[in-house]
Amino acid sequence: MKTKLTFFLLIVFNIFWAQNISKEASLPGSVFPFDFQRFDSQFRETRLKKEKISKVWINIPAENGKSIRFNLSENGLTEQRLNSILTFDGVSEDRSSSLKLSVFKDHFNAIIKNDEGYFIVEPYKTSPGEYRIYNAFSKFDERFTCGVEENDVIKELAVVKQSLNSKSAVNFPFGNQIRKFRLAVATTGEFTQAFAGNTDDALAEAVNMVNLINKIYESEVSVTFGLIADTTNKTLIFTDPATDPFTVDASFASAANSQTGFNTMNTNTTLVYNKYDIGHTFNILSSGGAQGQAGPQPCNNTSKSRAWSQWALTMPKGIVAGLIAHEMGHQFSAGHTYNAVGGSASSPTFCTSGWNAGAAIEPGGGSTLMGYSTNCSTPNNQTNTGNNNLSYFNARSLDQILAYLQTPANCYTIVASTNQAPSANAGVDITIPKNTPFKLKGIATDPNDSNLSYTWEQADIATANDKGAFGSTITGTGGYTAVNSTTAPLFRSEQTVSTTERYFPKMQFVLNNQNNPPTNDAEALPLVARNMKFRFTVRDNNATNGGLDSDEIIVTVSNNGPLTVSYPNATGISVASNTNMTVTWDVNNTNTIKSNVDILLSIDGGVSFPYTLASNVLNNGSYNATIPYIPTTDKARVKVVGVINPYAEFFDVSDNNFTITSDCAAYPTYITPQTAATAVAGSPASNLNMVAPPAADPAYTSKTFVYNVGTSTNNIIVYSNSGMTAPVSASSNAVTNTFKFRVTETGSYVFSKSSGFLITSVHSGSPATLANFLTSNAYYNGSNYTSTGSAKAVVLNEGVDYYFVISNFSNPANATSYTLTSAGPGSLYETTTTPAGYSYTFVAINNSTGKIQAVSPTANFTSLPAGTFTVKGISYVSTANVSSFVGKSVSELIALNICLNESKNSRVLTLTSSLGTKEYQNVTDIKIVPNPVKDILSVITDKQVTHYELYDMSGRNMVGRKKYSGNIIFTEYSAGSYVLRLFDKEGLIYTTTVIKK
């Protein structure tokens, strides 16, 4: 539902927010060596020239060890280049990652942005020439506190502070321009003294932090900050605490003290108000920790510098970046998004006092940039489980910031951008039954970016009576739980790059907990009739500046329901394929919402439901279904679905697995890779050259095993220190459990264990060696082993065999039972022997017809015409005529009693028309120069070229369909011939051959 409003919105807050991170923590991530002198040699001489530095390269290993090459160009953070400090923007060769990087003396700092979030690169504190890369928003022990402070400006505007409470999805989309503010950073005398009085070092710290923050704000809200000359010429880098204009609060950061200092500087003309748009004070703490306090508003002389951030020099830059990003969010009016009360043992009320009536949109402590994460833990633990330190603004925060940028924080200048914003559509408003799982699916498009990420969030702001109400167990101020409230937030924010849909709650809770997740999972279904608002936000993750769009849908919860499956629900049920089974469910008046339902079948415990038992049958509580001719499984589940529209449904799944017996032994698989492919129809690139995968056991995220089963002897390799930075072979020929596994999706995984001492290491080969070591939950200090709860995060790739090597040092092995749990984008599975009498092929299913259009054992689809296809793998009984699959759907093949099993995953194949250039060679009003080209190709024409495609001679698309911005960079391509295709808004207008020298 798109909502268009014709008036501007203004919101203010009459409190200031503060954050305090109480102590340092050992960092996750990985350490790598770096030759800074070699890197610096690229621009050592050119930095003496006036021209901006460009064509500089840096290779940075990602957390998984793979190197990413970035092309760097000097950015405009400072008005003039500083003598000892350089700041760069960077884009990876495949344009999937971007960075901000600052160089000072003999080291650099950087922040990398990709569709997985933000990553910090900083010098490692123990060894010169070593750097650490880690997720910028990794979990740390944090504590936030809030102060209350008013000023006259806020009082005058207080009457409209709630004006956004009922408004959402305004000021979207955005991203086609950048708003630039003049930022005045002033540092205290204590700040400079922490660098032994060296103002260059103090300035470098300030510049570096602003450079890091710019990446977050450019990506999230298309806002950037330029440091004013008074900061960079060190006028505002004070050296003496006795003479600087600031009063350092020994107990906490003070936004008021910051503004007072800036007011003083205006009075004594050190820095007059008209020289800057927004101000911020930096201070260095003499002991560990990080603290901040801030409030609105930029552009108002007497309040635009109400922001104070301070930290210890030993704090990781990721913590400091998160601190300043949070505080600057407050400067732009973004309030705390959590709905929790209490605090910590040492500050038992700071969550209560920091609760915000205009922004309390996240259940519990929240998880986004303006939430409180792990900090509201007493008297009730209101921390969201899992990833509760997310690197983006909640939709409510975006609303508040964007409204403030309209007025009153509109003193920025506009910087042109070639980015085009994405488009988000959440669908139409729907009605669902109470206490019933449901699914929402959004629609997202983008004209010039493909690395989209998708966020679904509940958008209901807690009322005063909802304050602190959390899930089904924690009551709020009004004396009721969130599930019994008509207004309280129930569902946490979730972001993904793989799908526009979200299940409420997560399917694991539907399958394992009878639709009732634990309170701290923040996934509770409503038990009463109410309205819920949900926001679907699309980010384009553009390398220059982020483009975003957001749309809202209203979900009306009826007092009817729940819809619940009643048979097959018990344990011990068995049924043969090709026989009938009566499926029953409790309707509970849900037929007044949806009169017809679909009945689906899963054979993998509910991971997927590929088989349709019935379609569009009456929602009357019973249907006699025929079990199809499918392989034997003991993990069958039934799903009854009320499909509201193609983008929304409510449903329930049977509570327990049941057995289907069959003489069909076709086996399940996961194909790799599953990334989308684009090629020219008939070209060599349309031959995907895929290999038949091994048979796969059922996927899982949790595995329980008994330690004395399957024991072996192996090396024990763990980390050599508590920082978990380098492995060491601590023991050889130890008694271990070793088992092989794969992951269903590439990404970062964290493995945790149940209680008790257990070393859990992961290797990419067997037997375990230092060379194939990937991660562990343990470290060895030379005399003792320490086993932590979780292994350090590691990036694992689909289609690769990995090995758990596990030991508790009992010899002989005891019979202790342990449970390993994985957290990551996918699940784990183990491969098994392929049964005799079965073959494997890949099929291309035409997305327009749903029918198989081609089959190939190697995914050679050079015979296919232009179009969009879904590629799957199919194991089938070898006696079947595979050529007969063409022209039929998978369901039709099963109905013909052909024994087969389609892969659990798939990939999209897009085939474009021929690369032929003859039909466009007579166009005379388009010129391509120079041709041959070495670095930069220009298009000379009066036509409105919007996009281009570039193909090598094998037909491989090198860039997708890329937005045209005036030049085409050929630097990174190998010498040879390429086909260039130019497009305007109507379609293809020109094709030619380009020779790369």
UniProtKB/TrEMBL annotation:
Q: Which GO terms describe its molecular function?
A: metallopeptidase activity
Instruction: State if Signal is listed as a keyword.
Output: yes
Does the entry feature the keyword Signal, yes or no?
yes
Superkingdom as given in the UniProt entry:
Bacteria
Could you tell me which species this protein originates from? Chryseobacterium oleae
Keywords from the UniProt entry: Signal
Q: Write the protein's name.
A: Por secretion system C-terminal sorting domain-containing protein
InterPro entries (UniProt xref) = Ig-like_fold, MetalloPept_cat_dom_sf, Secre_tail
